[in-house]
Amino acid sequence: MSLALFAVPAQGYIDGVCTASIDGSSLAGRAVDADNAIILKRGTSVPASGTSQVANDHVKVTLQYLGFDVATIVDEDFDRNGWSKPVSVDRYAKHGVGYYIVTAKTSACSAGALLKIEGNPLATTAGLVGAGLAGVGTAITVIHTLVGGDKPPVPEEIETPEDRADAQRRVMEQERLLAAGSIQSSCCGMFLLPAMMLTLFAMMSGDAMPRPLRYRWRPKITVLGSFSGLLIGLGTAILLQQYAILIPTRMNMLTVIGVGVLVPNVLVSLRSRGRIAKANRRLDALRAIAASAGPVPVLPLDEPPPPPSPFDTPPPPEDL
Fold this sequence. Notes:
This protein has 6 helices and 10 strands, in the order E-E-E-E-E-E-E-E-H-E-E-H-H-H-H-H. By secondary structure, the protein is of the alpha+beta class. Strands 1, 4, 6, 7, 9 and 10 form a 6-stranded mixed sheet that branches.
């Protein structure tokens, strides 16, 4: 199965009055997909040939990877009788297997096709490099997901729900952090004093705040996450090509690399969202305790005795 994410332009064709073949397979009308790939095996030598109606011409056959010529297979002049040359597969695909694109050009015509070189990818340089890049990128992503992202100061849970004073103190502390902008919030530092006053008023009156401050979540894009994703995407793209799943066009490879860069940042963002949701749940619990508990009791003061009235009858004198 091949993964042709985008169409391969100007391949699997013969333009002009020419013929071309590789290992006896004509390139005429051959589409660039898994069903029409020319299968070659490592350690073999295959014939490549072609003709042109131009009396004297020059042919250049190249192996392409990511749209770039990575090896020149044939580069020679030929006459009306055409050209023919045995090609060693190992010589031109010595560092890897999987899918490659081959092109042939003369002054009169051009041709192209998809090659599938069979072999064990992990026994080749390209396969080992791809596996190494993907492995290192995955390890960095796991570590970064566990320790990276937003870490809001999660308030400790109240052991005794009746401890209203402690709950008020903790809520006020969280409101100060939120309003001061120590973490991402909907308010700025200039609203610190009003936010704290509203919080205190709500707790004293027993009414819930209409729009309490909360920890805000936003997607995270980090340098380390993007770097680890680049390693994952590049390694995965190489492995997909080596295992003959992905046709190595520039657009296909860039798409896989782009998805790889996105994955670690998504994981870190989801991890941050979980932490923020936990902080909001605990903050809501603290608010509920501070708002639902009864008012702080006030001890009565000892009242002095009233002064004597001039109309009161004086007490009788004590007997001596």
